[in-house]
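A quick word before the example. In earlier lectures we treated sequence and structure as two separate objects. From today on, think of them as two lines of the same record. Here is SPOR domain-containing protein written that way.
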Amino acid sequence: MYRRIALALSATLLSAAAGAAAITVPSNLMLPEADRAARGYVESWIFSIELEGEELTGMNACRKILTERGFAPTLSKTASSALPALHFKISGQKEYAQASTEADDALAAVQQAKCKGTLSWTVTSKPSRR
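And the structure line, produced from the sequence above:
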């Protein structure tokens, strides 16, 4: 009986570890492709974070975090005939010259704040001048 419990616990811990390893963080996407870098192609990275929701007060903590971390967040308010309820979106972006765990830290801070709304983020490459 003890062996079954230990095996189940080990499987659960392995699943959790595998799930944690599968999480993509922004800095992983900011790594240059080796072939392109070898040819002298240089990229910078734009990390964007958006938070959308129906309650602005529930999103203010994340807006503050983005401001403190240099994302210069903007606020937009929308409503339409299809969605007549007022809808808020806070979005900010920051450019990085190279892969940076600072982007990971900013995302983690916003996630830990648990602001009301839907969080999304993107990393896009931008050709840099040399």
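Notice the following. The longest strand covers residues 43-53. We will return to this example when we discuss secondary structure assignment.
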